[in-house]
Amino acid sequence: MRLKVLGCSGGIGGVQRTTSFLLGRHTLIDAGTGVGELSVAEMAQIDQVFLTHSHLDHIALLPLLIDTVGAMRSQPLTVYASAATLDALGKHIFNWQIWPDFRQIPSAAQPFMRFCALEVGESLTLPDKLTVTALPALHTVPAQGYQLDSGQGSLVFTGDTTVNDSLWPILNQMDALRGLIIETAFCNRERELAQASRHLCPAMLAVELAKLKRPTEVYITHLKPGEIELTMQEISEDAAAFHPKMLKNGQILEF
């Protein structure tokens, strides 16, 4: 199974795109501005989107994606997320004021989009045999990460999260953990901001990674565009034992 990075930045500017990953050909993990890297033909093949939470940098292009390809599809695009996230999308985005409610277009009986709740601990097996399991995350809004299990190995995306003791025992039980994508949004001098906004800084990341007992590749996501070099330098110092690598747009991870 292949995961392509469409966007992995904590902001925009130049080539920076916010969080979205293409899983195979038919699945998106989050729908930030990285979705714009896809052609219309590629977007039309997306059957499901798994959202980690409702913040704009993770859902920004979902409304435009559905508007662009809805009429090209024979089946509605399914949006999976926690019930709390789906409720926020319904109230604040697909509400006829910010954007049309595509759960009702062209009709409620045959909509372009449907919502389906997937809560922490629940799993869904897709037609390509890949299993997606929602994992616990701690953020300023209800949030979750995802385990992507190809049957041969797993890739874990934490989503936006802060210190989260409930995550690591789950990861430590995975026999074939091929990679961990984990956020670090702020540099160490902004630790108070990281804590207030429920993100990580390099020092906090190092403490979290020390809870991981399985050897795996560690990839850093959600870096702020103006602090990429500084934050990665601090990560290389604070978490040197784990050899974290910066995730990059266009990168492909196989598992």
What's a quick, concise take on this entry?
With 255 residues, the chain is of the alpha/beta class. 22% of the residues lie in helices and 24% in strands. Helix 1 links the parallel strand 3 (27-29) and strand 4 (48-50).
What name does CATH use for the topology?
Answer: Metallo-beta-lactamase, Chain A
Task: Give the integer mean of the pLDDT values.
Answer: 98
What is the count of helical runs? Answer: 8
Unreliable sequence segments: none
In what order do the strands lie side by side in the largest sheet? 6-5-4-3-2-1-14
Sheet bearing the most strands, described? 7 strands, mixed
* Helical content class: 10-25%
**What percent of residues are in strands?**
15-25%
Topology:
Blueprint: E1 2-7, E2 20-23, E3 27-29, H1 40-44, E4 48-50, H2 56-59, H3 62-69, E5 77-81, H4 83-92, E6 113-117, E7 123-125, E8 131-136, E9 144-149, E10 154-157, H5 168-172, E11 177-183, H6 191-196, H7 202-209, E12 217-221, H8 228-238, E13 245-246, E14 252-254
Parallel strand pairs: 3-4, 4-5, 5-6, 10-11, 11-12, 12-13
Antiparallel strand pairs: 1-2, 1-14, 2-3, 7-8, 8-9, 9-10
Helix pairs in contact: 7-8
Describe what this molecule looks like in 3D:
By secondary structure, this protein is an alpha/beta fold. The chain has one domain: 4-Layer Sandwich (Metallo-beta-lactamase, Chain A). It has 8 helices and 14 strands. The strands form 2 sheets. The protein has a 7-stranded mixed β-sheet. Strands 7-8-9-10-11-12-13 form a 7-stranded mixed β-sheet, with no helix packed on it. A hairpin with a 5-residue loop joins β7 and β8. α7 packs parallel to α8. The protein starts with a strand and ends with a strand. The model has no long low-confidence stretch (mean pLDDT 98). It comes from Chitinimonas taiwanensis DSM 18899. Pfam families: Lactamase_B_2. GO terms for molecular function: 3',5'-cyclic-AMP phosphodiesterase activity.
